[in-house]
Each structure stands twice: as C-alpha cells, then as structure tokens.
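Field log, afternoon session.

UNIT: design team B
ACTIVITY: writing a sequence onto a fixed backbone
BACKBONE:
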C-alpha cells in the first residue's frame, strides 16, 4: 500500500505552488527512493492498476506526469506534442558545459534528431557491432574463469566483478578509450545517471571532469586516428555535414554512459531474477539456446531503465484522461509499462519462452535505443557464460540484504553477492 505521505507525493502535488513543488516539502515518489527492487515493482504495479497517468514528485523535487501503462507509454514516446528537454538541472549548468554534454540525439527532436542519428549511424554500424562478438566472448571468459574457484570457496559480488567490468570494457574498446582512463567512469557516469538524486553541484563537477577527459580523447583521435568508433565519429560525414565539436563530445559522453550503465543492470537484475524463481537458473542452464528469448524477458520484467528521459509538453492537450498543460514535464515509466497487467494479465510473471515479447525497455519511436543490438550481444554472452560455469549459482545473502540504488532513471542493484558453495 502507498502510505499517506507517498500518496501525497504521487497525487496531490497538482495543488502546489511552483515554490512548494521545488522546495522539497513533498517527498519524492517512493518507487524512486526505495532500496528494495520488489517494493519498487509493487508500488509501480499499484499505480498502474489505478490509472494510466499520474503526477509524481521526482527525487530532485520537481513534479512530472508519469505514464505507467503500456499502450499509453508507446503513445507518449511517439507523441510530437512531447518534446525533449535536457536532463534534470540542464538549465542550471554553465552554457558551455551544457552544450558539451547535451548536444546529442537523445536530447533533441526532429528534424535535428534525424540529422544526428544519421551521422552517428554512419559510424556505429551493424558491422562494427558484429565484429565485436569474438572480443565480447573473450572478455566474458577472462572475467568469469577466475571467479569459478572463488564462488565455490566463498562468494563474489556479481556486479563489481562481472556485470560492471564487462560492459565497461566493451564500450571502452569500441570507442578506443585507453585502460588508464576507465576507473574514473564509475564516478562520472554514476553522477550523470543519478543527477536527480545527488544534486546539481556534484553533477556539474563530475560532468566537467568527464568533458575535459573527452576533449582530450577526441584531440588524440584527431591526431592519431585508430580503428575505433571515436575516430569514426570524428570522420563521420553525411554529404557535407559532420558533427560539431560539442556534438562529438556529447555523443561520446552519451555512448559511454548509456553504453554501460544499462547493460550492467540487465546482467545483474537478470541474474537476480533467475536465481529467485525456483528452477529458472537450472532450466535455462539445461537449454542455453533459450538465452536470447530469456534476455528479452529479463529486459521486460526487470529492465535496466526505470523511466524515459524527460519530455516537455509543447502545447496543452488531453492525454489518457488527464489535461497535460503546455510546459508540463512528462516521463514514461518503462518499468511500470512493461509489467502493466491491465494490458497483459500475466505481465508480472517470468516466462522465459514468451513470444512475441513486446516491451519498451529500449524505449520506442525515434529515440529507440541505438545500442540495443550491442546490449543484446553482451547480455547473451554474459548469461551463456554464467550458466555454463556456475550451474549451482545462488545468492550468498538473504533478500533483504540486496540493495537497489534509489534513483529516477536507472533500475540498478548496488551489489549482488553470489556463491556456488552448498548452503
Ligand atoms: C540493456 C541495455 C540498454 C537499455 C535498456 C537501453 C535503454 C535505452 C532507452 C530506454 C533509450 C531511450 C530513452 C528515451 O527515449 O528517453 C535509449 C536510447 C539510447 N541508447 Fe540505450 N540502452 C541500453 C544499452 C545501450 C548501449 C549499449 C548503447 C551504446 C553503445 C546505448 C546507446 C543509446 C543511445 C545513443 C540512445 C539515444 C537514441 C536516440 O535518441 O535516438 N544504449 N536506450
């Protein structure tokens, strides 16, 4: 049940003045702040059953409309009356910094979006992704092999030892980021996806350091182009068009952040889900050919991304029974929409053979995830590698010790201790 103060944070903020909305006097909606993944899903489920669209308070105190049912989510994600606005606090950043991190396709609408996506797609090709497959396999093996003995003896944190380093290595190799710079990413990238929780100052500080690093990387690739995506983006052309310096910086910023934060969660949340459903790990281990369809189901049922990025209404209009006013902020609850039982009565159930499996884990419409083929490739290698090496895997701690990150954007576990030692 939503408590009274939660209900306030979900429904009554429409009565508040702008000052009250931003003053922190109403607590953010509880599904953002909870550290319990099951609780997050339970609260979203309640909200989705009670209606398709709700007003909610975001972690940084602003309020927004949140769309929590599947059909309405897809409609909102393709509605031209909802334009992209920058991430939380974008307007408060120094303009030079803002341009260096936000001039990418995720933050703009048509026709600008089409221009940027075409330029990036010319460099980030299917062939480039497919070429990565053997390297992804090798990285998976290198990370997992040393963990076999440790899991049998004691335990290891699946997030820190595998789910995180694999996508970081893949995206860094794809972009040609040298190993020496990588340890900084966790901090910078965490700040980016958690801006709504950590506040504008910490966010701006991390973004400034990140941009400095990227400018240096781009300058090096200009001097010495290599066979990597950063060099390809530097040289990307569409007729006479090319990416400006800010577009290049912010595109690489986006690829580095979106390219790993999400995939980490797909692997960690997916393993956690499989280990908690009786028999699911063993069934999949016995039939690894089902891994691709299992990955789709894990994306759907406990996806890496909680909400879409922010949209803003460019006119006043009626939507799913509410009046969205010009200037209102709108968010799509991807997690909630994927488990919408009003559309699919069995949406809360894990079905590793579900087909067709429609979901909005990668978004929908023109901003549909550009990295989805890469994410699927990584996740399939990760699950296949884990299932083959750790048939007896189980969580090493009780469920209440497994902590989810509070936040607006991501649906992430902080750690996932696992073991193969008999209980
Ligand atoms: C399981 C992993 C992933 C998930 C769940 C995911 C999810 C998403 C979602 C929901 C969006 C749309 C956001 C919105 O409309 O507000 C998006 C966009 C995007 N993602 Fe991903 N993503 C994943 C992996 C990746 C990877 C590996 C990359 C890059 C290598 C990537 C790059 C992008 C880019 C560039 C966009 C912007 C596309 C556009 O605006 O046209 N993502 N992603």
């Amino acid at each position: 049940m939503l408590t009274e103060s939660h209900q306030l944070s979900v429904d009554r903020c429409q009565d508040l003045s702008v000052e009250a909305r931003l003053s922190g006097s109403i607590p953010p909606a509880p599904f953002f702040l909870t550290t319990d993944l099951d609780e997050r899903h339970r609260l979203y489920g309640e909200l989705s059953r009670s209606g398709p669209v709700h007003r909610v308070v975001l972690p940084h105190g602003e309020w927004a409309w949140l769309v929590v049912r599947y059909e309405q989510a897809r409609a909102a994600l393709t509605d031209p009356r909802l334009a992209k606005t920058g991430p939380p606090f974008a307007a408060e950043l120094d303009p030079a910094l803002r341009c260096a991190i936000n001039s990418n396709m995720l933050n703009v609408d048509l026709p600008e979006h089409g221009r940027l996506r075409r330029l990036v797609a010319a460099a980030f090709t299917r062939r480039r992704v497919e070429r990565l497959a053997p390297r992804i396999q090798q990285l998976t093996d290198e990370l997992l092999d040393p963990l076999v003995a440790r899991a049998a003896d004691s335990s290891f944190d699946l997030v820190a030892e595998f789910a995180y380093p694999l996508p970081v290595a893949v995206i860094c190799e794809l972009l040609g980021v040298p190993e020496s710079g990588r340890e900084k990413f966790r901090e910078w990238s965490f700040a980016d996806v958690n801006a709504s929780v950590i506040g504008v100052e910490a966010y701006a500080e991390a973004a400034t350091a990140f941009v400095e690093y990227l400018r240096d990387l781009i300058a090096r690739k200009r001097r010495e182009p290599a066979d990597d995506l950063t060099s390809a983006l530097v040289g990307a052309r569409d007729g006479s068009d090319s990416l400006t310096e800010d577009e290049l910086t912010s595109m690489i910023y986006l690829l580095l952040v979106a390219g790993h934060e999400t995939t980490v969660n797909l692997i960690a949340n997916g393993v956690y889900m499989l280990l908690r459903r009786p028999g699911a790990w063993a069934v999949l281990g016995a039939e690894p050919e089902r891994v691709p369809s299992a990955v789709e189901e894990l994306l759907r049922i406990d996806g890496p991304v909680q909400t879409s990025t922010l949209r803003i209404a460019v006119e006043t209009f009626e939507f799913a029974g509410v009046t969205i006013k010009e200037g209102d902020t709108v968010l799509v609850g991807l997690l909630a929409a994927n488990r919408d039982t009003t559309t699919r009565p069995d949406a809360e159930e894990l079905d590793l053979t579900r087909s067709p499996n429609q979901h909005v884990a990668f978004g929908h419409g023109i901003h549909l995830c550009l990295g989805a083929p890469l994410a699927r490739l990584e996740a399939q290698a990760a699950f296949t590698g884990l299932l083959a090496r750790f048939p007896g895997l189980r969580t090493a701690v009780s469920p209440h010790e497994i902590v989810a990150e509070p936040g607006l954007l991501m649906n992430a576990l902080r750690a996932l201790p696992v073991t193969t030692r008999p209980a």
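LOG NOTE: The chain is about 50% helix and 10% strand.
NEXT ACTIVITY: expression trials, pending approval
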